[in-house]
Amino acid sequence: DYPFQVDQGRAESLPYDDGSFDLVFCSNAIDHFDNPQSAITEIHRVLQPGGHVFLTCDTYEEDSGYRNEAHPHTFTESKLLELVSRVDTGSSRLDQQRTEQKLRFC
Description:
Radius of gyration: 14 Å
Mean pLDDT: 82
Distance between the termini: 29 Å
Oligomer: single chain
């Protein structure tokens, strides 16, 4: 048991109303999703105006594409930045921090 509610769903179609959260946490998962762009769009949809996204992902020097069944996507730093920046966030800002080969967006 957890001291919080746990729901199961697909990142590409989150089972929540628009603007349901002031914080979305997605750590080392985006490269596992079938459609990362749809997942990013859904994260933005369920985020309240002025809310925050904490997203981490391993990045690589080269995009090798499909790695294996569990990791259908490989991201370079620039490819991940492009993916995240495609969502129009209005006045919100994108901060990134590099930690070894991971990027974190807040």
